[in-house]
Exosome complex component RRP41-like (Sesamum indicum), 256 residues
Amino acid sequence: MAGKSSATPTTYSPSLSGQKKKRPSFLTDSDWVRPDGRGPHQCRPAFLRTGAVNSASGSAYAEFGNTKVIVSVFGPRESKKAMMYSDTGRLNCNVSYTTFATPIRGQAPETKDLSSMLHKALEGAIILKSFPKTTVDVFALVLESGGSDLPVITTCASLALADAGIMLYDMVASVSVSCIGKNLLIDPVSEEESYQDGSLMITCMPSRNEVTQMTVTGEWSTPKIHEAMQLCLDACSKLGKIMRSCLKEAASGPQD
């Protein structure tokens, strides 16, 4: 794999139901079509914009298909905890879902785990020494859960941090792949996640070609996991360009 990893692999199950459903027969057909008509290796169109929350130091909104996320960043501000002897800043992350984010009320995944994983994904990209003895708070709210929630949250949070002027080594982009039978599906929707045999998610800094987090669930053969990793890295590179374009457009201001 190209690049290096600054975090040890962890596990994460993005399926809202928490259990894999029995696959319908159409998934075993060679000519089956994804629910939204995409090809197996085609990501959903990404809509990104900054400045979504006026009261925040920085913010961003992300929409990938039916997955819609808004992230607010506050700080750097004086930490409530004693940090007299700390030469680095502190990052706090919180992920939550609106009550209407999922089809069934209370169906959202455990947000404590998501908050922890968001923190791990972002921490390696932030220059913590640039805001000593202070705290940066990241609040991610999932407005609608449509699949690949954590990758979208992470990508949106990185954009919000950049909008807040937080010094970063690089932007952070995240993409996941679901394995269903012999098929690898990038950027899966909720229905696909519910049928998956395994999942792989990579979070990286595209310009530095450095992985900040990798999560794997299920059983994978060595060739399949290498293929899935390359799919994610390629998609992260493309997503990083979209993110930088979004920041440039925001910096240039409204056009007449």
